[in-house]
Write a structure and sequence with these properties.
heterodimer; A: mainly alpha; 12 helices; 69% helix; B: mainly alpha; two-stranded antiparallel sheet
């Protein structure tokens, strides 16, 4: 055995993070462009070309989401169960809006009646905006804590409500996520357009980027006063996966704990900022390709910041603190995690290469 | 206590996703293989008509694939949203094959992009490789999903861990080599090919009736007729007998299908429930951090029947103090209702026989060169038949599993999330509407592509001028 249980849990957590990154980078472009479509002032011919370019990537991008869900389910079945059931209404809206693609792209590309195209542009806009916002709201709720309770027989009780999921903080994270994907999409457009459309994308990248930097800073400031979670009993990284064997406390600013213990981690949010600024500067200087790279690094850093702030929690519970789920006590068995690592060890690089390759052959 | 409405609504939701899945996945499976076959023939023989065939059927494949993606996404979320206790209880085993299925889906989905876009950009041979990869991806995804679903019927390679209170994987090779899952894979694969053949036959017959696209339609008709005859005969000959070889529950199902009395089974289930209650009581003691070897040994001996104790939870949450009347209720509900299985099986066989006749006639016509309008009309209107057969088969498999979600381990009643009835109803209605809309869209798009024929290609195939 190459890894012990502790190491395996840690490595699989990293793999889960990489799948999230893969999903956000690949689908992010598609989502960003769908959201920007109504604001580009593009002619019908230009729109048609954008659609023809992105349509072939759509199905593959969606499987990134499926694979991410699969890795979470296989690696932390209880986390998957508790969060998905708690976020049921949000997921319903997300999935329904994702239903519009990839079929929507084919439809838009296949029928050329004008009223039909207008409708599809609206549908595609919503299918970009809603998932971006709702996935952000879900991330925000993870930081706030999720209202579930684990009974002693591990039945999960769900005590939240739909409106309860839209707390001000969660909504702020949702807005940050929309801004993030807007920048990413706009910079992608910049690398693939010319003249008026290029200038328009550049302008959108700038305003989206500034909005993102402000929102990200706001969320960061808020988190210093947001109630975070902390395991007070000894953590047993190789222990059995039973979440009910620990005590958890909640307190202002506890999400900053990891940064205090390991100051080097401050580099992650800092890099997110620096890369965001770099992406905007490069975009301004017409170095679109480099701007896209910087924006990709920014996306990665934002996701890492989120993961590291939560660590070792995956889904804290805000109504039953001790039911909170961490990477150590809610994971799959040793056998399953080993199988997961072998499988994803093959999947992840191949998926990354194939996705990159597909985007590359698009003109 | 879990309410009956919650269970019924969650089951309805699962059935809805499964119907959507079973409408389109069989089609994409068979089409992916035929696309690869037709394109191989184009590359080897150099006959351009086979490239046009591949492009035409490729457009219809893209629609089917788009819809099966949608169903997969909804399915991937609903285990967690609607079946959260199931997800916790068996996720350790169930999710790995599922992820393998997603890997297959990725190969096909990513390949579809290259397939649609790459006719000009990739060389002949590279494009052929892509088409084969799509076929492999589609088949790998079916493999993964059916290993997972077959495991629910015959749960091997896993055992209950009293410390984590869930089933844990101890041997992945047992799960991947599950004989029941493999029997299901062979049967479903062949049945999917029949669905594809029926679809292709119907559309070709439509063209032949309308005297359009004659060259494309004649070849497609011949391919579909031959492919359909071979696969429908293989499906019927190999049959589903192999599926009923393993596991006691499959035995019950077979008895129900044949309308046989199940007194012996009920008697056996009564004993297993009694033994299960013992296991349940021992488990509670073990949970109190007692670690005596005798206790562990006694639990290990009784735990195969633990699932039977969970059957009682529908009537008595605390299980161990269930009254004899409640135990009797659980015993009676421990086998599936007979009539739906009896008739479901007969409708599957009847449609199978009709399909053999249809494909025989279609082959005779394409070999002997008959041009009878009635035959083409029959081929066209027989379009729903293979789906009907495939749906009956799926119904037998899922309904016959009741009252279990995972055979002998987890009752359906126990697997659900305790969501509110309002949440469940809204979600069911929303998905119902969305699927109806998507279905309408898919039919419209299919008709549009059929009207276009093989002349026009999707815009992604054209070499675009740069956006200016």
């Amino acid at each position: 055995m190459l890894f012990d249980y502790e190491m395996l849990r840690l490595v699989c957590w990293g793999v889960l993070g990489l799948f999230v990154v893969g999903f956000v980078l690949s689908s992010g472009i598609e989502i960003g462009v769908s959201m920007l479509l109504p604001f580009l002032h593009a002619s019908e011919a230009q729109r048609a070309e954008l659609v023809a370019r992105l349509a072939p990537t759509s199905a593959g991008n969606q499987v990134w989401l499926l694979a991410t869900i699969g890795v979470l389910f296989a690696g932390w079945p209880t986390v998957y169960a508790a969060t998905f059931a708690s976020f049921q209404p949000l997921l319903l809206l997300t999935v329904l809006s994702l239903f519009v693609r990839p079929l929507g792209w084919y439809c838009r590309a296949s029928v050329t009646r004008e009223d039909w195209l207008k409708k599809w542009d609206k549908a595609l806009f919503i299918s970009g905006l809603l998932p971006a916002a709702l996935l952000g709201v879900m991330a925000g709720n993870l930081l706030k804590g999720v209202p579930f309770h684990l009974a002693s027989d591990m039945h999960i009780a769900f005590l939240g409500s739909f409106s309860g999921l839209f707390s001000p903080f969660a909504s702020l994270v949702g807005a940050t996520c929309v801004a993030l994907l807007t920048v990413h999409g706009a910079i992608y457009l910049q690398t693939h357009t010319q003249d008026a459309l290029y200038q328009r994308s550049k302008a959108l990248a700038m305003s989206g980027g500034l909005a993102f930097l402000v929102l990200f800073a706001l969320a960061g400031g808020w988190i210093t006063h947001l109630e975070g979670y902390h395991v007070t009993t000894d953590i047993m990284p190789s222990g059995v996966s039973n979440p009910l064997t620990k005590f958890v406390k909640r307190g202002d600013g506890l999400w900053l704990d990891n940064y205090e213990h390991e100051p080097a981690l401050w580099a992650l949010p800092a890099l997110a900022f620096v890369c965001g600024i770099a992406a905007l500067v490069l975009s301004r200087l017409d170095r679109a390709y480099w701007a896209l790279l910087a924006s990709a690094v920014m996306v990665v850093m934002v996701i890492l910041t989120m993961g590291v702030s939560l660590f070792p929690f995956l889904a804290p519970s805000n109504i039953s603190l001790n039911s909170s789920l961490t990477i150590w006590d809610a994971s799959a068995s040793l056998t399953t995690l080993s199988a997961l690592l072998c499988l994803t060890g093959v999947m992840l690089p191949l998926m990354a290469i194939a996705t990159r390759g597909l985007y590359k052959i698009l003109p | 206590m879990i309410s009956e409405t919650v269970v019924e609504l969650s089951r309805a939701q699962f059935a809805l996703h499964a119907v959507q899945y079973f409408l389109f996945v069989p089609l994409t499976l068979g089409l992916s293989l035929l696309l690869a076959g037709m394109e191989s023939w184009f590359v080897i023989s150099g006959q351009g008509v086979y490239q046009r065939l591949t492009q035409f059927w490729g457009k219809l494949f893209a629609i089917g694939f788009g819809l099966s993606m949608v169903a997969s996404l909804a399915m991937a979320c609903q285990f967690g949203t609607h079946w959260s206790y199931f997800s916790h209880y068996v996720g350790d085993v169930f999710a790995i094959p599922l992820l393998l299925g997603f890997a297959g889906l990725f190969i096909a989905a990513n390949g579809l992009g290259w397939f649609l876009f790459g006719w000009q950009r990739l060389g002949k041979w590279s494009h052929l490789v892509v088409t084969w990869l799509i076929a492999i991806g589609c088949h790998l995804s079916l493999f993964g999903f059916l290993i997972a679903s077959g495991w629910m019927q015959n749960p091997v390679g896993a055992e209950l861990n009293p410390q984590t209170l869930r089933l844990e994987l101890f041997d992945l090779s047992l799960v991947l080599g599950n004989p029941l899952a493999w029997a299901k894979i062979v049967h479903s694969l062949l049945a999917s090919y029949v669905v594809t053949a029926g679809f292709m036959l119907a559309i070709s017959a439509y063209y032949l009736l309308k005297q359009r696209e004659i060259e494309l339609a004649q070849r497609s008709y011949r391919i579909a007729a031959a492919f359909g005859l071979v696969t429908v005969i293989a499906t019927m000959a190999i049959g589903d007998v192999s599926i009923y070889g393993a596991g006691a529950m499959q035995h019950n199902k077979l008895a129900a299908i044949n309308g046989l009395p199940n007194d012996a089974t009920l008697e056996q289930n009564r004993r297993r429930i009694a033994n299960g209650v013992k296991a349940y009581a021992l488990l509670q003691e073990l949970r109190d951090d007692k670690k005596e070897p005798e206790l562990l040994a006694a639990f290990a001996a009784a735990k195969v029947d633990l699932g039977y104790a969970l059957l009682l939870k529908r009537w008595r949450e605390s299980v161990t103090d269930a009254t004899p009347a409640q135990i009797e209720q659980a015993v009676r509900a421990s086998v599936p209702a007979t009539a739906p299985l009896y008739w479901g099986y007969r409708s599957m066989i009847a449609t199978g026989v009709l399909l053999v006749l249809l494909f025989l006639a279609a082959n005779a016509s394409s070999i002997l060169g008959w041009r009878h309008a009635w035959l083409f009309k029959t081929s066209l209107y027989a379009l729903p038949l293979p789906w009907l057969a495939s749906a009956s088969g799926w119904f037998i498999s899922e309904f016959g599993r009741q009252p279990w979600l995972v055979a002998d381990m987890l009752p359906t009643w126990q697997g659900v999330s305790t969501l509110t009835v309002a949440d469940l109803a809204v979600s069911l209605a929303a998905y119902g509407l969305a699927y109806t809309g998507l279905l309408a869209l898919a039919v419209m798009l299919t008709l549009k592509f059929i009207a276009q024929g093989s002349v026009e290609v999707l815009p992604f195939n054209q070499e675009p001028s740069h956006v200016v």
